[in-house]
């Protein structure tokens, strides 16, 4: 009886210690939350400041992974994309390419320059365009779409996700131990292992040259929408094409990436072809299991590649501004 009592006390103590560790060290019960939207499907909820896996995740009043907007934000660069630039829970706010670029550009020009991060995991270009169409272009002086090969056919489906898929929570778990079980063990089995078996079997048969194939039937219309609208609004538009690890290893984009490059050429859109910049595997979060997402070093690499392109446009912008404001 005494042994049983001690064992129960030890078990309770272990559970309490694990609960506290998960909460206060790993940020369980403090996940960034999502909100639904009828036009662009979903996005991070606005005005969040979370600490998750020791990383700070911030969103501003427009659900961007950026600091709040101010009236002095007269020079604006919009970065559009999916989880590659959003970073998700594993990427600290200060490690994001958008944050790095914003700090560098402020130092370079000694003026407020905003690099706004408009993104969400698994967004396609049509999601990004729908967001801008609804929320506005924020006085953008340059727009850069960060995209990958699989975005070519990653079309909006409006499949309900928020509050249903554990990867898109709309409320916090109350018990960290339950979150660890429900979100990560059950999530892996239901949302990763089973879909991978179902999706990648057909992908191997029908799209052998593609890395991730979304099985859309039409080229994502967001590419054309962004091209046409930026042209009409006279906003410079650039595409940054980010390769996945198999494409790096083969030194070529798959069939979908080739279509994106062809689209850009046909529409005379400048492209930063990251494959030509020779990214290495140490830039990736977990090269063995994750062939697309960058770690902090990779985010800095992306910022380094984007910096000269953005500076090229902003140098012209500030030169025109100076000429038009001479006394």
Rg is: 22 Å
Number of contiguous helices? 9
Look at the structure and name the CATH superfamily of the domain at 57-158 and 209-324. SGNH hydrolase
Helical content stands at 40-55%
Q: Kindly state the mean pLDDT as a whole number?
A: 89
CATH topology name of the domain at 57-158 and 209-324: Rossmann fold
Number of E-state strands = 11
**Would you tell me the structural class of the helices and strands?**
alpha/beta
Question: Biggest sheet: strands, sense, closure?
Answer: 5 strands, parallel
CATH class value of the domain at 57-158 and 209-324? Alpha Beta
Task: Quote the beta fraction.
Answer: 15-25%
Looking across the biggest beta sheet, what order are the strands in?
Answer: 6-5-7-8-9
Described by the principal axes of the CA atoms, the overall outline is globular
| N to C succession of SSEs | HEEEEEHHEHEHHEHHEEEH
Enumerate the spans where pLDDT stays under 50 for 5 or more consecutive residues.
187-211, 323-327
CATH architecture call of the domain at 57-158 and 209-324: 3-Layer(aba) Sandwich
What is the rounded distance between the termini? 92 Å
From the structure above, extract its key features:
single chain, 327 residues, alpha/beta, Rossmann fold, five-stranded parallel sheet, two-stranded antiparallel ribbon, 11 strands, globular, disordered C terminus
């Amino acid at each position: 009886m005494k042994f049983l009592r001690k064992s129960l006390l030890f078990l309770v103590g272990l559970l309490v210690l694990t609960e506290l560790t998960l909460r206060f060290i790993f940020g369980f019960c403090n996940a960034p939350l999502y909100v639904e939207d009828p036009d662009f499907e979903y996005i991070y909820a606005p005005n969040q400041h979370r600490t998750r896996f020791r990383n700070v995740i911030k969103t501003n009043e427009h659900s961007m992974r950026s600091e709040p907007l101010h009236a002095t934000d007269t020079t604006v660069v919009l970065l559009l994309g999916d989880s590659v630039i959003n970073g998700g829970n594993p990427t600290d706010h200060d490690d994001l390419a958008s944050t790095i670029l914003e700090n560098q550009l402020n130092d370079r020009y000694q003026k407020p320059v905003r690099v706004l991060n408009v993104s969400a995991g698994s967004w396609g270009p049509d999601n990004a365009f729908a967001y801008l169409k609804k929320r506005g272009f924020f006085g953008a002086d340059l727009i850069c779409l960060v995209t990958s090969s699989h975005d070519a056919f990653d079309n909006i489906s409006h499949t309900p996700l928020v509050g249903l898929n554990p990867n898109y929570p709309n409320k916090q778990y109350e018990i960290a131990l339950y979150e660890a079980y429900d979100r990560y063990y059950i999530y892996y089995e239901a949302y990763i292992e089973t879909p991978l078996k179902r999706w990648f079997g057909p992908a191997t048969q029908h799209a052998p040259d593609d890395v991730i194939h979304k099985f859309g039937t039409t080229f994502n219309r967001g590419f054309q929408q962004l091209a046409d609208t930026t042209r009409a609004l006279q906003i410079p538009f650039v595409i940054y094409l980010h390769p996945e690890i198999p494409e790096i290893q083969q030194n070529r984009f798959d069939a979908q990436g080739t279509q994106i490059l062809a689209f850009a050429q046909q529409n005379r859109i400048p492209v930063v072809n990251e494959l030509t910049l020779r990214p290495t595997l140490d830039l990736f979060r977990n090269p063995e299991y994750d062939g697309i997402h960058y770690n902090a070093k990779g985010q800095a690499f992306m910022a380094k590649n984007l910096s000269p392109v953005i500076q090229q446009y902003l140098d012209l912008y500030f030169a025109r501004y100076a000429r038009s404001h001479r006394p």
